[in-house]
Amino acid sequence: EGKLKGHKDVTIMDLPGIYSLSPYTLEEVVARNYLINERPDAILNIVDGTNIERNLYLTTQLIETGIPVVIALNMCDLLKKNGINIDVKALSKKLGCPIIETSALKKTGLKEVIAEAIKVAKSHATGTVSAIFEGSVEDKVSAIEAELPSSIPEAEKRWYAIKVLENDSKVVEQLGLSADNRFSRYTKELEKEFDDDAESVITDQRYVYIQKVIEETVKKPAQKMSLSDKIDSIVTNRLLGIPIFVLVMWAVYYVRPHQHFLKILERQRCRS
């Protein structure tokens, strides 16, 4: 941790780089425990704009904690270079949090994103959380939220509800619940409905939501076919593929014996 230059009252805690809040690695455990137990005033989420789908997975989880999130959409210089256009205002509206375009390489947007993070932190507002799952999943999340202990703040209940539905062992233990607790029926119903484990269902639902958001806010240029792709489209063609294969094999077995025959003739000429 460290103090922000020019703002002695602002402390910045640098957490490990992670891609989710699932407690499978030490980095994820450390980051998750800090966010849930320490409850910082704001989260500055650095998102790689060139790999936005993968990065937004963590973003949706951070928003669910109820802590205000400010997104630093990084590598914007590469986005422009690659002709990728992100509608930042539309994306910000859909996620419910401010987004500032930055480039750590060129050091642009850094002052703006820090100023926004300070503004959000000092407002002491709770994060805006929207429903992102399909009907039946959202119904179960809402049902668990309603049954969670009143000791859990309202802003945090959605995160806990989703983790309980996923049967997250650390959250279940934290809440003092047994392995087969009163919420288990929701998990069993979910797994029966989707014929998959609850955590995988939630993961799939997140990516469905993220993909929808990206389709509506991100525009990529039409990709040009490389020389390799063009060759592949010909040699693997449903109609031309087999004739081309036969021709190549014929050439291989025809050319090699003739080359061998020519070498024999050359040797005989040398001897004569």
Key features of this structure:
mainly alpha, extended, 3-stranded parallel sheet, 272 residues
Largest sheet, spatial ordering of strands: 3-4-6
Tell the overall outline. extended
String of helices and strands: EEHEHEHEHEHHHHHHEHH
Largest sheet: 3 strands, parallel
Seen as an oligomer or otherwise, the chain set is single chain
Average pLDDT rating: 89
What fraction of residues sit in β-strands?
5-15%
Rg is 28 Å
Q: What structural category do the secondary elements indicate?
A: mainly alpha
Unreliable runs? none
Instruction: Give the N-to-C terminal Cα separation.
Output: 88 Å
What is the number of strand segments?
A: 7
Helix fraction, binned, reads 55-70%
- The number of helical segments is 12
Structure, described:
The chain contains twelve helices and seven strands. The chain starts with a strand and ends with a helix. The strands form three sheets. A three-stranded parallel β-sheet has the order 3-4-6, with helices on both faces. A two-stranded antiparallel ribbon has the order 1-2. The protein has a two-stranded antiparallel sheet with strand order 5-7. The protein has helices at residues 26-38, 52-64, 76-81, 88-95, 110-123, 135-147, 154-165, 169-174, 184-194, 198-217, 227-235, 241-271, and strands spanning 2-4, 7-12, 43-48, 69-74, 85-86, 99-101, 218-219. 24% of the residues are buried. It is extended. Helix 4 (88-95) packs antiparallel against helix 10 (198-217). Helix 2 links the parallel strand 3 (43-48) and strand 4. With 272 residues, it is mainly alpha-helical.
